[in-house]
Amino acid sequence: MEFSETVSEKLNEKQRAAIRGITAAGDKCLPPLLLVGPWGTGKTYTLAQAAKHALEVPENRILICTHSNR
Question: Roughly how many angstroms between the first and final C-alpha of the chain, as a whole number?
């Protein structure tokens, strides 16, 4: 799957795979996706890129939930 120009070219292959999972076709019943990793690995950046990609479809709606110790 090719991403549009709104998605950064800086993503590595694992980040691209995560975005493919997050933005999979709506007609498929997929389990929730959990992004896990140490700080500084690009989880938030990847999620932001996935949201940008998903927003290219006008009828898409996005809910992002996070946990923080702050």
Answer: 36
> How far apart are alpha carbons 64 and 47 in whole angstroms?
9
CA atoms lying within 13 Å on the CB side of residue 39: 2
Would you call 49 exposed, middle or buried from its count of C-beta atoms within 10 A (0-12, 13-18, 19+)?
A: buried
pTM above 0.85, yes or no: no
Which residues are CB-contacts of 69 (< 8 A; sequence separation ≥ 6)? none
Give per-residue pLDDT as tens, 36-65.
Answer: 889 999 999 999 998 988 888 888 888 877
